[in-house]
């Protein structure tokens, strides 16, 4: 078992997610909100957020998988919309775990625009600001983190560590 160095504690995450949910709830009053999570990394954030957003809303999931090595993002992205609910005319909040280069969210957003939602806004737990390779920025984020590979709170390394309640860095 590897040692994990805590980068963001469970308590810090709870406070930030509560604040994020409050901002979202305030901004989406009187809208037809659909929270759309990107599988698999966003599930912990989505389930925490949806229970704190006290507005009627729908929930959907889409899957994005890229052909990549273990820890780095490569160009090709496959987007699976089999579980996409009807979003035409709706206000979509697209939720992912992390905005790294920004390519994943940008490409998903492009695909979703084809279904003619009223608007799409993006929310992530983590943003590696220094790595951004796109013009877009997330509309909502909780933490700006350094360029380190992180795990926990939904984020994996080779499919594991998603269940850690905090964000950490695997130490050699
Ligand atoms: P982007 O397209 O923004 O470069 O990458 C976003 C995706 O890459 C995330 O949804 C996530 O799956 C993965 N990713 C980027 N950085 C990290 C990281 O530090 N840890 C983990 N576990 N996944 C990451
Ligand atoms: Mg992901």
Question: What's the helical proportion of residues?
Answer: 10-25%
Write down how many β-strands occur, each being a DSSP E stretch of 2 or more residues.
9
Assess the beta-strand content as a share of residues: 25-35%
Return the CATH architecture. Answer: 3-Layer(aba) Sandwich
| CATH fold label | Rossmann fold
Distance between the termini: 10 Å
Query: Main sheet?
Result: 6 strands, mixed
As for the number of domains, it is 1
For the biggest β-sheet, the strand order reads: 4-3-2-5-6-7
Low-pLDDT runs of 5+ residues are none
Cα radius of gyration in angstroms: 15 Å
Helix count? 3
The chain-level structural class is: alpha/beta
Describe what this molecule looks like in 3D.
By secondary structure, this protein is an alpha/beta fold. It has a single domain (10-66, 77-147), classed as Rossmann fold (3-Layer(aba) Sandwich), CATH 3.40.50.2020. 22% of the residues lie in helices and 33% in strands. It is built from three helices and nine strands. The protein has helices at residues 10-27, 43-50, 103-113; strands at residues 3-8, 33-39, 58-66, 77-80, 91-99, 119-127, 140-144, 150-151, 167-171. The strands form two sheets. A six-stranded mixed sheet has the order 4-3-2-5-6-7, with helices on both faces. Strands 1-9-8 form a three-stranded antiparallel sheet. Helix 2 links the parallel strand 2 and strand 3. Helix 1 packs across helix 2. The protein is globular and about 50 Å long. The termini are close together. Bound molecules: guanosine-5'-monophosphate and magnesium ion.
């Amino acid at each position: 078992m590897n040692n994990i160095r805590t980068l963001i504690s469970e308590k810090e995450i709870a406070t930030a997610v509560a604040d994020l949910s409050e901002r979202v709830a305030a901004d989406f009053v009187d809208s037809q909100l659909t929270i759309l999570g990107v599988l698999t990394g966003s599930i912990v954030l989505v389930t925490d957020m949806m229970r704190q957003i006290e507005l009627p809303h729908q929930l959907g999931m889409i899957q994005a998988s890229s052909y990549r090595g273990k820890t780095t993002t490569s160009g090709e992205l496959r987007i699976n919309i089999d579980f996409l609910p009807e979003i035409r005319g709706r206000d979509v909040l697209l939720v992912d775990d992390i905005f790294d280069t920004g390519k994943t969210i940008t490409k998903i957003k492009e695909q979703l625009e084809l279904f003619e939602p009223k608007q799409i806004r993006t929310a992530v737990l983590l943003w590696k600001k220094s790595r951004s390779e796109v013009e877009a920025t997330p509309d909502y984020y909780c933490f700006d983190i350094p360029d380190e590979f992180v795990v926990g709170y939904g984020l994996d390394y080779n499919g594991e560590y998603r269940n850690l309640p905090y964000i950490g860095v695997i130490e050699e």
